[in-house]
Amino acid sequence: MSNPEIYDAIILGTGEAGKFMAWHLGSQGQRVAAIEKSKIGGACPNVACLPSKNVVHSAKVASYFQRGSEFGMVHSQWKVDMAGVRARKQKMIDGLQELHLNNFHKSGAEIVLGFGHFVAERTIQVDLRDGGTRTLRADRIFLDTGSRATIDPLPGLSEANPLTHVEALELDVLPEHLIILGGGYVGLEFAQAMRRFGARVTVVERNPRLAHRGDPDVSEAIEQLFHDEDIQVVTNAVAQRVEGISGSGVTLHLTSDGVASELKGSHLLVATGRTPNTQNIGLELAGIELTSNGHIKVNERLETTAPGVWAMGDCAGSPHFTHISFNDFHIVRDNLAGANRTTTGRQVPSCTFIDPELAEIGLTETEASKRGIPYRLARIPMPAILRTRTISETRGFLKALVSDDDGILGFTAFGPEVADLLVPVQVVMAANLPYTALRDLVIAHPTMGEGFISLFSAVPAKKL
Ligand SMILES: Cc1cc2nc3c(=O)[nH]c(=O)nc-3n(C[C@H](O)[C@H](O)[C@H](O)COP(=O)(O)OP(=O)(O)OC[C@H]3O[C@@H](n4cnc5c(N)ncnc54)[C@H](O)[C@@H]3O)c2cc1C
């Protein structure tokens, strides 16, 4: 091993937690190296959250064109130009790259482009993108290597060269018939967007219903939405093998409810889960253990089994969201400054950006029942919120689970722009306020927030 270059801190992977840690420590005047093998800033701004929401929004515009006459708009000719959709997305990504580079520059943290792997405790070799290697050593190392789309060991699948979210976001021609393996949020968002652009879309889901971890009424509402938008859904489906090549034509052999069938499409998109990027990076040489799922083993302070090494974000098995990776950064940052923050019991809000949106925080009815937690249920349909009538988006509902001591246990919203309704609910939950704090607020009219008054007025009285 050549003489290592000494840093105060090394960050492996510039995902959400990693880049913020690099900027934080760098701006404190520490000597920081942030190693990145691919796109600076990680998945979110380059190949995941932000570009997918950018494309989802273009699809929303397409749906407005389709619905134009409903709003009194008469248009004669319009068409979807996928190259234009992609160009708008790319422009956003380019702007975000500039923002990231500026932040690195301002903080003084150095970016080292290449593949990093441990060669000894607290020592990382970087196989540089431009050739050659560098060996770096620091007393503090922060791992944020993220995750990638899982390609199941299904006969013919990897040979079919399927799209993942990365390639799907680069499409500049519309698939004729897109088959999507996996009905989780990534699959659902792509399914609706591609359908709205004009592709035929079939979602193949191994569970009995879409969004199967949530409540049945949520699954039913999404399935109805997809039915209305002419998106085919095959549930209880076990993929058996794939023939052909995505882009030129594929056949998916599957069994659904025990019956064998085959599905022919032009393209295949795989959205069946995530695999942590924890292999071939020499963790064993540095005393860093993995869990049985292949995530880096961490305690509730995100400390790994090696002293002076932390892991954050997807690679540490934290719930796979950008906001959670960001929160991981906050926890580690504050603990470095002497706090004692942990991941235990933190809120994990989630949003699925289909249209209308699905937003959830806290307990669902299914979880509460499974855990034997008593609750009172309030539920209102979307048309009860008058704002939805002004924008002709009345599909969906709000529901809340309320405890006997008037706390909010959980909140689920399916409706237009409901992702933004999560924050007030989260504040009430975090501050241990009663649900009446939202019910009795003066809320501007006509807004989606007014729904809180109707929803929380519908909480049944306590049983005496
Ligand atoms: C299509 C899609 C849409 C999504 N939408 C949302 C959303 O709307 N909201 C949300 O909250 N979450 C969303 N997510 C999830 C979110 O993108 C991830 O949870 C988040 O990006 C994880 O961030 P991270 O910090 O763990 O690391 P990542 O962003 O995964 O970054 C890890 C970085 O480490 C680098 N790296 C890995 N190994 C090495 C190595 N050995 N050497 C050097 N560099 C390395 C990688 O190249 C990568 O840049 C979405 C995911 C997908 C796939």
Proportion of residues in extended strands: 25-35%
Query: What is the overall pLDDT average?
Result: 97
Structural class: alpha/beta
* Tally of strands: 20
Percent helix, as a range, is 25-40%
CATH T-level fold name of the largest domain:
FAD/NAD(P)-binding domain
- The name of the CATH architecture of the largest domain is 3-Layer(bba) Sandwich
Strand arrangement within the widest β-sheet reads 1-2-3-4-5
Overall tally of domains: 3
The description of the largest β-sheet is: 5 strands, mixed, barrel
Entry keywords:
464 residues; alpha/beta; FAD/NAD(P)-binding domain; Enolase-like, domain 1; 3 domains; five-stranded antiparallel sheet; 13 helices; 26% strand; binds flavin-adenine dinucleotide
Structure description:
- With 464 residues, the chain is of the alpha/beta class.
- The protein contains 13 helices and 20 strands.
- The chain folds into three domains: 5-149 and 275-336, 3-Layer(bba) Sandwich (FAD/NAD(P)-binding domain); 158-272, 3-Layer(bba) Sandwich (FAD/NAD(P)-binding domain), CATH 3.50.50.60; 356-457, FAD/NAD-linked reductase, C-terminal dimerisation domain (Enolase-like, domain 1).
- The protein has helices at residues 16-27, 43-47, 49-66, 82-107, 165-168, 185-197, 216-228, 322-336, 365-370, 386-390, 422-430, 436-439, 451-457, and strands spanning 5-12, 32-36, 110-120, 123-128, 133-143, 147-149, 177-181, 200-204, 232-234, 237-245, 249-256, 259-265, 267-270, 274-276, 309-311, 350-352, 357-362, 376-381, 397-402, 408-415.
- Helix 1 (16-27) packs parallel to helix 8, helix 3 packs antiparallel against helix 4 and helix 3 runs parallel beside helix 6.
- The N and C termini lie far apart (73 Å).
